[in-house]
Amino acid sequence: MENSALKKLSPLKPLTTDQKQLVANIIDFTISHLQTRHTPAIYTIYGDAGTGKSVVLSHLFQQIQAAARLDHSSPLYGSKNVFLVNHPEVLKVYKEIAGPFKELLKKDYYRPTSFINQIEKTGEQVDVAVIDEAHLLLSKADHYNNFYHDNQLIEIIKHAKVVIIVFDQYQVLRMKAFWTPERLQAIVNQYPHQSTYLTHQFRMTASDELLSWFNQFTAGEITPFPNNSRDHYDFRIYDNAELMRQAIFRRNQKVGLSRILSTSGYPSTLDGGKHYIVEGQFKMPWDQYNFTSTPWAEIPETIHEVGSIYTCQGFDLNYTGIIIGPIISQIPNTNQLQVNLDRVTDTEMFKRRDDLTNPVEIEQSKRQMIMNALNVILKRGVRGTYLYAHDPLLRTTLNQNYQTFLRRTR
């Protein structure tokens, strides 16, 4: 199967004119602050899922390292630079990218905790730290993962002259990595900084109106499907999860990279055993821990597993069959969704933290994280997205809206 993640993030992937200009601007920012500043400087790229943040970072880091290692005339020559990402599946892709490029080495890429613990021992400082998926940085101590400080971003800034990050508030998924734009800016505003906002959707061939429907849905509102929901995009609603599975299997046989994904709400424990999602005749196990160097989404055999937010985040799939699990249901007699916190089965998602004490803020944050996770998996399918809802009322409403849409657009 073609490694689509490698292709997507490769520095060989062409950039748009705007993306090239952004890379050039960040390099100018970096050189300026390395030459004139004694305090760290931070550049932040904001953008929703699919807006090209990671490919910009990949090109940026390749150009920085080419200047650092190959271009004797560059102000960046001889600089020491690292690329950090707190997502093991995405880290595998970046390490694989390093192979064909003589200016990129696998040792340039780290999980943030590994980098922080290593550099603290040496007392060194890097010139540039590039951070992908900064919304996944730990914002509290996590002894299980050998992080003993209060905030990974703060620790990285201590050990770098320039820090370049991408951030998406709608991909915050765990309390131990709890971020808001305000919490990020409270750190960034202490230093010379600059930012840019990416808005153009590159991943999905879906219309802007359907993407807007996804956003409204994950904001808790069920609205009619736009008339162009299927223009250049295969969007479907299913009232039978097994039939959806069969359709995804057929897509996978034809074009590859098609998977079933699900929200939380079904039995799931990291104990090495298989835990199944059952919906009528549908029965499939959750994704297994991936010990290989190949990302879960790129392994052919994972067509027989249900992907979670932790294995699909950051990756493109051709077609996705998405199960909206028991954690999300429709409020009777309304077109509103509710989050059922008592049905959450992801025990890692809501670990308590001492700096969050307001019960209202805590509950709102939990509900937002659930909807964030749904938003992320809704935006994996490049060519098509199929939906099935566990909640009978929501399933009926979505199917009725879909049938109305089909009659309206014939």
TrEMBL record:
Every Schlafen group 3-like DNA/RNA helicase domain range: 41-391
Pfam families: SLFN-g3_helicase
InterPro entries, per the entry: P-loop_NTPase, SLFN_3-like_DNA/RNA_helicase
Top-level taxonomic group: Bacteria
Matches recorded under SUPFAM superfamilies: P-loop containing nucleoside triphosphate hydrolases
Protein name: Schlafen group 3-like DNA/RNA helicase domain-containing protein
Biological source species: Limosilactobacillus gastricus DSM 16045
